[in-house]
Structure formats: structure tokens, C-alpha cells
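Complex record, two chains
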Amino acid sequence: NAGVTQTPKFRILKIGQSMTLQCAQDMNHNYMYWYRQDPGMGLKLIYYSVGAGITDKGEVPNGYNVSRSTTEDFPLRLELAAPSQTSVYFCASSYSIREEQYFGPGTRLTVT
Amino acid sequence: GQNIDQPTEMTATEGAIVQINCTYQTSGFNGLFWYQQHAGEAPTFLSYNVLDGLEEKGRFSSFLSRSKGYSYLLLKELQMKDSASYLCAVRDRGNQGGKLIFGQGTELSVKP
């Protein structure tokens, strides 16, 4: 099992550019999550999904979009990058809401 | 609303015991998680408490008091590799997605 994988590891974007952060898991987990983590801060939930075709907003969804067409993949889309979106992005998955979440290695994004 | 408080940083000596506290306020409690996060890495699961009492797992133990909105993580026989950030996260009842609300994390430094 590869667990939760994320690509890319690092990315620098110019203001106004768009990009998609990829996330995949091979554990057959139904629940998947996107978080962002700013320096010295905890994790903030952006979007989550309880299964293929079902997504919902978390605490900080503005400026982001997601889709969940398969159980394995949960991409995060930034349409018009802003400096405030400079952060480390973590994708996570869990088997159920009572189980622990497994995190991917993260994507470090800088918007200048 | 929801609020989670934990100390920003702590320092302890190799071989000693350290207790990291977490207090929380939620509209409906449905479980508390502790994660460990080394610098530049993803969070990894340490423990889960949903009922009052102590859960022991090797050198790590976690305690929960639901009536007091309080948890602590106890680390025994500290090792240098325990230097990391420790994140307290609470899941709210009625939360269909298993969403977690994270505290800002406690940065633990273990000195020789």
C-alpha cells in the first residue's frame, strides 16, 4: 500500500494562475479531506468528501474547488491563486468517521 | 462554536515525563485525537479517546474528561526523536463527515 499520495511536493504560482493539487489513496477509504496549514498553526479543513460524488465545504473553502469522481482520487483546484493561499496543503483519508485519518506528505505552495 | 486551546511550546529533558494539555469547547463532543507532526512532515496518529479515562499505548498515554472539556497527552521516557509538534483535534457530534477541528499544536523540544 502506498497510502495517501500527493503531487506535486512543491509549487510556485504567480497571482491569478490556476492549478490542481492531486491526492490519491489506495486503502479503499470512503472519507477524504483537504487541509491547509499555515506556519505555526494547526490544520484548517478546506473541503471533505464522504464518498464518490459527494463533497462538502469545511472551515475555509473560499478560493478552492474539489471533485470526487472515484473513491481513490480527490483533487483540489485553485482557480485564481492569491498570496493568502500560500500554505502547506495536506490530503487525508479515513475508513470511517471513528477511525484515524491518514495524511499524505503535503504540497508546499507559494503564490507570489 | 468550537475552540481548542493547547500551549504553544514546551521544553523537557531527555528521559523525563511531559504532559501536554488540551482544553476544548464544542457544541457536541464525539471524540478527541492526538497527532504527532515532525517539522516538514505530515501528521501521524497517536491516540483516540471518546470515553473518559486513560488510554495507554507504550510510552504515550492520553486522558480525557468530557465533563471538564479536557485532555492531556503524557509522554514518558522522553527521547530526542519526540521533539515535534503535538496536535489535539476534536470531532463534533452530528458531524457527518468526521470533520476534525485542530488546535494550533504544541511544539515540544526535548533537550539532552
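Note: The mean pLDDT of chain B is 93.
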